[in-house]
Amino acid sequence: MAINNKVQGIDVSHYQGTVNWTAVKSAGISFAFAKATDGNTYTDPQFKTNWTGMKAAGILRGAYHFYESNDDPVTQANNFIKAVGSIAIGDLPPVVDIEINKGGFGNATLAANLQIWLNTVEQALGRTPMIYTGPSFWNQNMNNSFSRYALWIAQYGASQPTIPIGWSSWTFWQNSESGSVAGVTGSVDTDVFAGSMADLLAFAAKK
Known about the structure:
alpha/beta, TIM Barrel
């Protein structure tokens, strides 16, 4: 499972059903992200269970929002904020997952709306959010003005991921959508962190 001895993680949603987080931890997983919300109103039905279960098992936890470009960014941000309640120092930063441009928005509009989501969440939760995306989507639909946000890049089958415009490095890399991890039924997304466990703990402690 190890890739260049990097710290291993997974990300989950209700599609994984009930996760045995103690078994996941025993399998060598150090961090995990759980889907919290999607768009203006949707909350993942497994989020609360995953959120508490990850912490109880001693796994560094993060929460992500799936961004719907057709929905209002402030309403989406508030949906996420309501679901997570708070993100403590020691938890991973809040994440926005942007990978679809419904409605065919121009780069400037899509970027401006995403910035509104990021600003709203950062102000409410006191943490600098992180961006999850794929290199092709980002390069086609976005711009290079988001470098202050840590990058969680999605790319499979590569020895190293492609860095999208605006960044010089990645922080997390989703390297597979078909991983197998004890404690999770069926396939699961696997991730690695670009650093040591001490680096990851330091990253989780930053505002």
